[in-house]
Amino acid sequence: MEAIMRALGDQHDELDGILSGLDDDAWGRPVPDCPGWSVVDVVLHLAQTDELVVSSADIGFAAAAEKIVGGAVAGTVDDAVGRMVDHERGAPWPEVHARWRTASAAVREMLGGSDPRRPLPWVVTDLPARTMATTRLSECWIHTRDVAHAVRSQLPATDRIWHIARLAQRTVPYAFTRAGIAPPAGAVAAHLTAPDGSSWDFGPEDAATTVTGPALDFCLVAARRLDPSASALTAQGPDADDVLRLVRTYA
Known about the structure:
Elements: H1 2-19, H2 24-27, H3 39-59, H4 61-69, H5 77-88, H6 93-112, E1 119-120, E2 127-128, H7 129-150, H8 161-170, H9 172-178, E3 188-193, E4 199-202, E5 209-214, H10 215-222, E6 234-236, H11 240-246
Parallel strand pairs: 3-5
Antiparallel strand pairs: 1-2, 3-4, 5-6
Helix pairs in contact: 1-6, 1-7, 3-4, 3-5, 3-6, 3-7, 7-8, 8-10
């Protein structure tokens, strides 16, 4: 748990470092990877979802989400988060920045003080605190890159994505279930090249389906920020195509 919490803190610091250097124009720029959202909208979304993690622990996810929008939240997860941003859009960016800083600190405090196995309510089902922390890392990592893209900032890949790659590989069966198709025919493994050139191996050696390639590409595909066909990933086995199509890091 210490390692994932350290990674989450470092990811928050990376995003805050970008945000702290932005002017009024940059905060209002559209974010190509989040159609219809500006930089300030993305930061609002991160603040809201960090607040949801903390609030959901006390009153459940549905009630926590309804508290933000002032009513029932229907539709898909994307519909729900879009409605939340729409409901609270318009605050000055310094206020949104401060809100996200407070929310991110609160989620670190809550998760860092939890037993890694503590079940926490979330969108579809309860998640262990360790998994929740990893999903928060993943979401912040994704949106940090989105903001960097919008403001034309270059970010190096770091070993923080080990946690994201592990999450994506471990939750492949869940991704199949969410897509409404039969589970993989056998175990799925990922043999990835880390940003520093070392090897990261997730899953059994005798897995039926294996994904190979750069860890960064694997995480970007799972984040829906890179089409598998445009990546350097290769997959072999009975579920190769479906794994690359369905792998994900979020609900």
